[in-house]
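Protein modeling request. Please complete all fields; requests missing the sequence field cannot be processed.
Requester role: graduate student
Desired output: 3D structure, token encoding
Chains: 1
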Amino acid sequence: MPDQNASAAPVSPAAVSPAVVEAIRSGMTETPDFPSEGILFRDLSGLFADADGLRTVAAALVEGFGPLDAVAGVEARGFVLGAAAAVATGHGMLAVRKAGKLPGEVLNESYALEYGSASLEVHPSTLPVGARVVIVDDVLATGGTLAATIRLMERAGWNVVGVAVVLELEALGGRAALAAATAAPVKALLAL
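Delivered output (192 residues):
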């Protein structure tokens, strides 16, 4: 159930500092036709390897969402960003894993992909019911993975207070999928 007290409005791109945008752009490479013809793959490996850039971007991801209990990072690149954001802000990090990676009791949420389906899992006992969580990932594309993550957080009894990504690929319409899943604000540090 979406948090009815949260703002559905996107965070303004003007609120993102030029230093954050420069860190992203200088740490990003673009590879045409990868992993398949017609895809322009944007890789943030250079950003992850730059300590100052990673610190700057990680802190910007969770800025402005109010009090938090944890940062949730979505496998796999969301782990890097989530851990960096958690450390930068003094919070814990919740790993949202692909199916079959966690032992014991898990909550599972499946979602559709253009070529099939996938599932995400968390241990429901990792955080107390009512914990305030910001979900972070590298890219918002179609929104399927992040919408599934939102549903998973809510099923665990945690409050999603925001979703933050480094890059939003606007032409793919992912923001609409997130708006259908939550009223929490969505922040993209750089929209392409």
